[in-house]
Design brief:
- 17% of the residues lie in helices and 35% in strands.
- With 125 residues, the chain is an alpha+beta fold.
- Strands 1-2 form a two-stranded antiparallel sheet. It has a two-stranded antiparallel sheet with strand order 3-4.
- Strand 3 and strand 4 form a beta hairpin.
- The longest helix has 8 residues.
Length: 125
């Protein structure tokens, strides 16, 4: 069963029933990330992310992504612990670019489409 946690900005987060009491004991705030397309829920006092609070033993090099893409759905079945590379690999293309596909852009000087992708920190054309 799921329960709702009211957030300070008028949003509502969904958590599993067993996490509700623990999460509801704190004030949580929604912040828009710098890219403007995703939300981040943090503790108003400590700054800890709600995803990290629910997952508990999160290694420093790991991140949490939302399986269904809903950044207010904090059910454990929706939270996927992954490396930064895995999160980036599963991300959608960026808004405001010339192509809707990740890694593809229009080169004005060559007047053609070009593709680039990073693999282990190195550019592959």
């Amino acid at each position: 069963m799921v329960k709702e946690i009211p957030l300070q900005n008028g949003f509502v987060a969904i958590v599993d029933d067993e996490e509700h009491e623990r999460c509801a004991a704190f004030n949580w705030t929604v912040f828009a990330k710098s890219n403007g397309s995703t939300l981040e829920v943090r503790n108003a006092t400590t700054g800890i992310k709600l995803t990290h609070f629910i997952v508990n033993d999160l290694e420093s090099d790991k991140m949490v992504r939302f399986a269904d893409g809903d950044h207010l759905n904090f059910r454990k079945s929706n939270l996927v612990v992954a490396t930064k590379a895995e999160v980036i690999r599963n991300a959608k293309g960026h808004r405001g670019t010339t192509s809707k596909y990740k890694g593809v852009s229009w080169d004005k000087t060559k007047e053609k489409w070009v593709a680039q992708i990073y693999v282990n920190g190195k550019i592959k054309d």
